[in-house]
Amino acid sequence: MTSRERMRTTVAGGKADRIPVAMVADFDFYCKAAGRPLWEYEYGDNAARAEIHKRAHLRFPESDFIYCWTGVSHKNAASRRVVMVEGRPCLEWTQTGKREPIQMRKTAAVWHAESAAKPTSQSEYDQYIICEADIERILGPVPTAQSLLEAGVYEPMEFLRRDLGDRAYISVAAHAIVPASIEALGGFERGMLAMHENPALVRKVVEAMAIRRSVPIMAAAQKGVDCAWIGGYLEGADMISPKLWREIAFAGHQYQVNAARQCGLQTMFWFLGDCMPLLDYFVELGIDALVIEQDRRGYCSDPVEVRKRIGNDLCITGWNWELDFINDRRANITREVERQIRGAGTDGAFIAGTTYMTSEVELGAVEHYCREVVRLGERRV
C-alpha cells in the first residue's frame, strides 16, 4: 500500500497492510528534521515551506502523514525578502528597503510560560460579543474559498501533492472553533462564564465561527488534501461538563464535519482534553478518526481504554509520552508502542500518532518510534 492508501483505509475504519505513522509537529520541528534554519520557513515563500515539509517527511521513511501548515499570502511574500548581512539573516522590506535582524522564534516552553502569565480576562479582540447582534459585526464577513486560493495560502499543499503524490496523506487544519469563540466573547474568563450564564449565545458564536473556519477546508480541498484536521481545545470534560459540550459545541463541529464530507475529505478530530465522557457524542458527530494526546491534569486519554469503550466505531490514534521523545528514552518508547498496539491496534482502525512535537524533540527518538511502530504493527502484537 502507498502511504495515502494506508491512511485512507485506516481512517475509514479498515485494516491496512500495517499500522500507519502520523507525526504531528510545530514547524520548528519540521525545520530541525529538514536541516533548515527556522527563518527559512517563517520568512520564505510557499515553495520554501513546502520543501521543508517534504524534506522532514522524507527524513522518516515510515511516516505516512503530513500535518501541513498553511502558506504565506502572495501579498506578504512580495512585501519582504531575506538578505544576509555579515552572515546573519535580516528581513528587508521591499517598499522601504529597511532592514532588521531576524529574531529567534520563541520556544514552546517560552510560549507556555507567557500564556500561563496572561490575564484570564485578556482577549485579542478590542470589542467582544455580549449579545447575538454583535456576532456578525465583530466576527466580520465570511471569507470565500476563492479569496483564500487567490491569496496563495494553500499552495504548500498543492506543491506537496505534486512532489510526493501518494507517498503522503495530507491534512488541512480547520482550526479550533471553541477557543476562537472564547476569545470573541472577551477572553477565557468571560468566555467560560458565558458558557454557564448564556449557553445559547455561546452556541451561536461557535456556530458562526465554524462557518468561517470551514472555508479553509473548502479551499484546501481544491489543492489535493486528504482530510480536514478539526481542532478541539478548551472543551474537554476537564473544562466543561459533557452536557454543556453537547449544547454549545456539537453543532459547530458537525458543521465542520459536513463541510469536509461535501468536499470529499475525511475528518480527523484532534481533541486536547478529557475525551472519555464525550466518546458517544464523538461517534454521533460522525468524525472518521479521533486524535488524542497523552493524559494531562489527571484525566485518562489512554487509547486502549478508548478502544474498550467504543470498539471499532471510530479510528483512533495512539501517542507517545513527550518526555520520552525529548530525553530519547527508547526502551520506554518501545514499551508504550507495544502496549498501545496490543490493546487498541490489532484489528485496524488505529494510527500511531504523536504528541505535538517541537524542536526540543530528539530526532533519533522519533526515528526509533517510527521503526518500532512498523516492526510491531506488522506483527500485530
Structure description:
With 381 residues, the chain is α/β, with parallel strands linked by helices. It has a domain at 18-75 and 106-313: Alpha-Beta Barrel (TIM Barrel), CATH 3.20.20. The protein has 20 helices and 11 strands. The strands form 2 sheets. The protein has an 8-stranded parallel beta sheet. Strands 3-4-5 form a 3-stranded antiparallel beta sheet. Helix 4 (46-59) crosses helix 9. The two termini are 20 Å apart. The mean pLDDT is 93.
CATH topology of the domain at 18-75 and 106-313: TIM Barrel
Structure class: alpha/beta
Q: Give me the Rg, rounded.
A: 21 Å
Mean pLDDT: 93
CATH top level assignment of the domain at 18-75 and 106-313: Alpha Beta
Helix content: 40-55%
Could you tell me the number of beta strands? 11
- Give the strand order of the largest sheet, numbering strands 1, 2, ... along the chain: 1-11-10-9-8-7-6-2
Biggest sheet, in brief? Answer: 8 strands, parallel
CATH architecture of the domain at 18-75 and 106-313: Alpha-Beta Barrel
- Uncertain segments: none
Query: Hey, roughly how much beta strand do the residues contain?
Result: 5-15%
Distance between the termini: 20 Å
User: Can you tell me the overall shape?
Assistant: globular
Q: Count the DSSP helices.
A: 20
Short structural description:
With 381 residues, the chain is an alpha/beta fold.
Draw up the topology in text.
Elements: H1 3-11, E1 21-22, H2 27-34, H3 38-43, H4 46-59, E2 65-68, H5 74-78, E3 80-85, E4 88-93, E5 99-101, H6 108-117, H7 134-139, H8 145-151, H9 155-164, E6 169-176, H10 177-184, H11 188-197, H12 199-213, H13 215-221, E7 227-233, H14 242-248, H15 250-262, E8 266-272, H16 279-285, E9 289-292, H17 303-310, E10 315-318, H18 322-326, H19 330-344, E11 350-353, H20 363-379
Parallel strand pairs: 1-11, 2-6, 6-7, 7-8, 8-9, 9-10, 10-11
Antiparallel strand pairs: 3-4, 4-5
Helix pairs in contact: 2-4, 4-9, 8-13, 10-11, 10-12, 11-12, 12-15, 17-19, 19-20
